[in-house]
Design a protein that fits this description.
Its EC number is 6.1.1.4. With 822 residues, the protein is an alpha+beta fold. The chain contains 26 helices and 34 strands. The structure holds ligand ANZ and zinc ion (ZN). The site of zinc ion has 9 residues, from loops.
C-alpha cells in the first residue's frame, strides 16, 4: 500500500490539468455558467483570505462542470495602484518591474492550490492591451456626456498627495494611509454616475441572488430622498435662495436659514458688511474638517449670522440667514431652511444661538400647547401654527404645501440623491492615462481611437511630490493636437483604479479581442456572471461602479444585460485568536507553509470545512490536522479496497448491511448536492462525506465473503466524486487508481435514486373487488397517487384486470388498494 504523497500527486495533476486543458475547454452545447472571484491586487504574496476566496470559487466551478455546465472560471490582476508607485519612490524599482515580478510570484503560489482557472483568458489591467480598452470606454463615456471635467473641492490626502473619492475617505481618514483627509480645489475628471442613480436603485430589485445586507448598503449609498426644493426670497438681493428639504410640511417652523460656508452666495451677501472678516475666518477654520465630522451629531454645531434675511414664501415671515458647519455645499442645494422644533441638529444650533423654536406639528395625542424642550419632534402628527394648513395630518400637509408652493412658483417636489458623481482623476503615474489632449486653440480634445492606447512613458521621475509623475515626462506631455495638429499637451492625471475593475469581468468573455473590449456575442453569451465571490469590503464601491459601467455599456449597445452579477457571495474573514489575520497584527499563517506541510488539498479542505463561506473562519491548527487525517483515511480506504480485491467481489442478493450502505450512499449524494447547490454549505457537505467514509470503513470490516463488491465500489466512487470539488488532487489520483482513464471532472456528478433514500416500508394488500389478491412492501410515505400507480402496475393485478374495465381505485395509505372492475 502506498502512502498519501501529496507533494507528488498535487504537482502531477496540476500539470496534467494544464496540459490536457481540462478547464480551458468549452462546449457551447451545454448551458453556460460563469463563476468569478474578485481578482487580486498583485501585492506579491497570497494570504489565507485569498485561499478562502479562491477555494470557494473553485468548488463552485468544479461542481458545475461535473453538473454538465459549460463553465467559465478565469483569473487576472487588478494591477494598477499606489503600492507599485510607492515601491518605485522608496526602492527605485519601476512600477512595471515590481508589478510583473509580483504577478509571477503570486501566480506560482496560486498554481500550488490547484485552482481550475483558464489562464488563457488572464487579464492584467496595467498592460496596454487591457488599458487600451479602459481608455476606449472612457472615450465612449466622454462622447455620451458621461465623462466631464469640473473645478471642484475635492478630498485630498496630504500624505498620498492625491485626491480621493468620497468612498475612499473612511471616518475622515484616507482609506490607504489613515492620514486626516483635507479639501482642495482642483480641476478634475468625473463620471456622471448620478445620471444612473435611479436605475442603480431600482435595479437592486433584480439582484435576487445578493445578500440583503449588501443591497441595503447599495441603497443607502445611493441615498434617495424625496422632498421639495423651495425658493426663499433674499431681502435686498437679486437672487433667491434655493433649499432642499425632506419636510416641506414644516415650512412654517423655519425660523432661520443656513448656507454652507462655501456656498457661492456667501461672499456676495457679506461683501459690503461688517460680517466679511468673521465669515472669512470661519471658512478658514472649517477647511480641515471632513464632511463626516461636520455633519456628525456629536460635533458641536457652530455658525454665525451674516446680517441678511430671507422671506418665507408661505408665511411671509422675515428670517435670519446663518452660515454653519453642519450644512454641506455639495448636498442638495447647499442651503437649508432650519426647523429647530423638528430637526435635532437645527434645535441644538438654535438653543446655542438663541433662535426661536416654533413647533408646527404636534403628536396626535398631545394638545395644542405642545412645546419643544431639548428634543426635536421628528415624527408625523397634526399641523399647528401653520395658517391654512392647521389641523391637517402632516403627511397630507406635505402635498398641500408643495401644491401651494407650485402655485406661487416658489417651489416644487423633487428627489435628491446622496450619490455624487465619480471623481476619477488621480495625480498618479501607475494608472490608466486619461486619453485627453489640451490644445490652446481647440480646448479639450479626445485622443483618436486609432491612436489608443495612450501608453505610459518610461522616462518619468518618481519624486513623491504633488503633481502626477507624468508631468515630468517630456516624451509624454507634448503631442500634436488630434484636431488641428499644433503642439498640444496631454492630460497628466491617470484614472482611479476602480475604473479598471469596473469592467474586467467583461474582458474575460473575450480576452484577446483586438478590435473591441469584447465582442457583443461573447459578452451576451457569458454574462451575467452567475456567481461572483469576494470580500464584503467591496460591497459598495466596486459593485456599484461595476453596475454603473454595465448599464452604460448596455446603453452603448455593447451588451444586452442590465446587471453584471446574478448571484453574489461575500465570504467572511479569516481570523486567528479572534482577530482578523493581518500583517499589522502579526497573526498570519502563511498559505505556503501549510501547503508545504500538509498539501493544498488539506489547506483547501480546512478553509471550506471550518465554517460556512459567509461567516468568519477561526484558524485552528488542530482543524488543519483533522482535515489532513481525514484525507489520509480516504486514501487508505481506497488503497486497501483495491489491494484486497474487495471491489471485484460478485454482487448478490442484498443483505441488511448492503441496504443500509446503499441508503447512506444515496442520502449523502442528496445531502452534498443540496448543500452545495442551494446554500453553499460546504462545511456540512464535507461532514456528510466524512460520515459516508465512516460507514464504508464499517462495511468493509464485515466478513469478506459477504461484501457486495459492486456496491462497495459505488460507495468509494461516490466519496471520490463528492469530495473532488474540495480536495481535487487526491480525488483525481484515486479516481484514476479506480481504473478511470479520464479526469473525474469530465465525469458526471453522481445522482441519487429517490427510491433508494426511502427507508421505511410497510406491507399493504391489493384487492380486486374487495378480495385480497396480493401483499406487497412499499415505501411508507407513498401518497394515494403513488399507491394507485404501484397497484395498477403490479403484475398479479394486471393479470386479474386484463380485459376488464377499471371502474374505480380506492387507495388507503399504509393499508390497501382496492380496484373495482367490471
Ligand atoms: C427642513 C427640515 C425640517 C429638514 C425637518 C429635516 C427635518 P436627507 O434625508 O439626508 O436627504 N439638509 C438638506 N441639505 C443639506 C445640506 N447640504 N447639509 C446639511 N443638511 C442638509 O436629509 C434632508 C434634510 O437634511 C433636509 O430636510 C435638510 O433639513 C437637511 F423637520 O429641511 B430638512
Ligand atoms: Zn488643436
Amino acid at each position: 500500500m502506498t502512502t498519501y504523497d501529496f507533494k507528488k500527486i498535487e504537482k502531477k495533476w496540476q500539470e496534467n490539468w494544464e496540459n490536457e486543458k481540462v478547464f480551458a475547454n468549452y462546449n457551447e452545447e451545454h448551458p453556460k455558467y460563469y463563476v468569478l472571484e474578485m481578482f487580486p491586487y498583485p501585492s506579491g504574496k497570497i494570504h489565507m483570505g485569498h485561499v478562502r476566496n479562491y477555494s470557494i470559487g473553485d468548488v463552485v466551478a468544479r461542481y458545475k462542470k461535473m453538473q454538465g455546465f459549460n463553465v467559465l472560471h478565469p483569473m487576472g490582476w487588478d494591477a494598477f495602484g499606489l503600492p507599485a508607485e510607492n515601491a518605485a519612490i522608496k526602492h527605485g524599482i519601476h512600477p512595471d518591474v515590481w508589478t510583473t515580478q509580483n504577478i509571477q510570484d503570486m501566480k506560482e503560489q496560486l498554481d500550488t492550490l490547484g485552482l481550475s482557472y483558464d489562464w488563457d483568458r488572464e487579464v492584467t489591467t496595467c498592460k496596454p492591451d487591457y488599458y487600451k480598452w479602459t481608455q476606449w470606454l472612457f472615450l465612449q463615456f466622454y462622447h455620451k456626456g458621461l465623462a466631464y471635467k469640473k473645478e471642484s473641492r475635492v478630498n485630498w490626502c496630504p500624505s498620498c498627495e492625491t485626491v480621493l473619492a468620497n468612498e475612499q475617505v473612511v471616518n475622515g481618514q484616507c482609506e490607504r494611509c489613515d492620514s486626516a483627509v483635507g479639501k482642495k480645489m482642483l480641476n478634475q475628471w468625473y463620471f456622471k454616475i448620478t445620471d444612473y442613480a435611479e436605475d442603480l436603485l431600482a435595479d437592486i430589485n433584480l439582484l435576487e441572488g445578493w445578500p440583503n445586507k449588501v443591497k441595503i448598503m447599495q441603497e443607502n449609498w445611493i441615498g434617495k430622498s424625496e422632498g421639495a426644493e423651495i425658493e426663499f426670497e433674499i431681502q435686498d438681493f437679486e437672487k433667491s435662495l434655493k433649499v432642499f428639504t425632506t419636510r416641506p410640511d414644516t415650512i412654517f417652523g423655519a425660523t432661520y436659514m443656513v448656507l454652507a460656508p462655501e456656498h457661492p452666495y456667501v461672499t456676495e451677501l457679506v461683501k459690503d458688511t461688517e460680517y466679511q472678516e468673521k465669515v472669512k475666518a470661519f471658512i478658514t477654520k472649517l477647511q480641515h474638517m471632513s464632511d463626516i465630522e461636520r455633519t456628525s451629531t456629536d460635533t458641536e454645531k457652530e455658525g454665525l449670522f451674516i446680517g441678511r434675511y430671507c422671506i418665507n414664501p408661505l408665511s411671509g415671515q422675515k428670517i435670519p440667514i446663518f452660515i454653519a458647519n453642519y450644512v454641506l455645499v455639495d448636498y442638495g442645494t447647499g442651503a437649508i431652511m432650519a426647523v429647530p422644533a423638528h430637526d435635532q441638529r437645527d434645535l441644538d444650533f438654535a438653543r446655542k444661538y438663541n433662535i426661536e423654536v416654533l413647533p408646527v406639528i404636534r403628536p396626535e395625542e398631545s394638545g395644542d400647547t405642545f412645546t419643544i424642550d431639548t428634543e426635536a419632534y421628528d415624527e408625523e402628527g397634526i399641523m399647528i401654527n401653520s395658517g391654512e394648513f392647521n389641523g391637517l395630518r402632516s403627511a397630507e400637509a406635505f402635498n398641500k404645501v408643495c401644491e401651494a408652493l407650485e402655485k406661487g412658483e416658489t417651489g416644487k417636489k423633487t428627489i435628491n440623491y446622496r450619490l455624487r458623481d465619480w471623481l476619477l482623476s488621480r495625480q498618479r503615474y501607475w494608472g490608466t492615462p486619461i486619453p485627453i489632449v489640451y490644445c490652446d486653440r481647440c480646448g479639450i480634445v479626445p485622443v483618436k481611437e486609432e491612436n489608443l492606447p495612450v501608453e505610459l512613458p518610461l522616462d518619468v521621475k518618481f519624486t513623491g511630490a504633488g503633481l502626477s509623475p507624468l508631468t515630468t515626462s517630456e516624451s509624454f506631455i507634448y503631442t500634436p493636437c488630434p484636431q488641428c495638429g499644433e503642439t498640444a499637451k496631454r492630460e497628466t492625471d491617470t484614472m482611479d483604479t476602480f475604473v479598471d475593475s469596473s469592467w474586467y469581468f467583461l474582458r474575460y468573455a473575450d480576452a484577446h479581442n483586438e478590435n473591441l473590449p469584447f465582442a457583443k456575442e461573447a459578452g451576451d453569451y457569458w454574462m451575467p456572471v452567475d456567481q461572483y465571490i469576494g470580500g464584503v469590503e467591496h460591497a459598495i464601491l466596486h459593485l456599484l461602479y461595476s453596475r454603473f459601467f454595465t448599464k452604460v455599456i448596455k446603453d452603448l449597445g455593447l451588451i444586452d444585460i442590465k446587471e453584471p452579477f446574478k448571484n453574489l457571495l461575500t465570504q467572511g474573514m479569516v481570523l486567528k485568536d479572534g482577530a482578523k489575520m493581518s500583517k499589522s497584527k502579526g497573526n498570519t499563517v502563511s498559505p505556503e507553509e501549510i501547503i508545504e506541510k500538509y498539501g493544498a488539498d488539506t489547506a483547501r479542505l480546512f478553509v471550506l470545512f471550518a465554517a460556512p463561506p459567509e461567516r468568519d473562519l477561526e484558524w485552528s491548527d488542530q482543524g488543519v490536522e483533522g482535515c489532513f487525517r481525514f484525507l489520509n483515511r480516504v486514501w487508505r480506504l481506497v488503497e486497501e479496497a483495491l489491494e484486497n480485491n474487495k471491489l471485484n467481489l460478485p454482487s448478490r442478493e442484498m443483505t441488511k448491511q448492503d441496504k443500509d450502505l446503499q441508503y447512506m450512499i444515496h442520502k449523502t449524494i442528496k445531502k452534498v448536492t443540496e448543500d452545495i447547490e442551494e446554500r453553499f454549505n460546504f462545511n456540512t457537505a464535507v461532514s456528510g462525506i466524512m460520515e459516508l467514509v465512516n460507514d464504508l470503513y464499517k462495511y468493509k470490516e464485515i466478513d469478506k465473503s459477504t461484501i457486495n463488491g459492486l456496491l462497495f465500489k459505488q460507495g468509494i466512487e461516490t466519496v471520490i466524486s463528492l469530495l473532488s470539488p474540495f480536495a481535487p488532487h487526491m480525488t483525481e489520483e484515486l479516481w484514476h487508481k479506480m481504473g478511470n482513464t479520464t479526469s473525474v471532472y469530465l465525469s458526471q456528478w453522481p445522482k441519487y435514486d429517490p427510491k433508494a433514500i426511502v427507508r421505511d416500508e410497510v406491507e399493504i394488500v391489493l384487492q380486486i373487488n374487495g378480495k385480497v389478491k396480493e401483499k406487497i412492501m412499499i415505501p411508507s410515505n407513498l401518497d394515494k397517487e403513488g399507491l394507485e400507480r404501484i397497484a395498477l402496475e403490479n403484475e398479479k393485478v394486471q393479470r386479474f384486470i386484463e380485459g376488464k374495465e377499471v371502474k374505480k381505485v380506492i387507495a388507503v395509505p399504509k393499508k390497501l388498494v382496492n380496484i373495482v372492475v367490471k
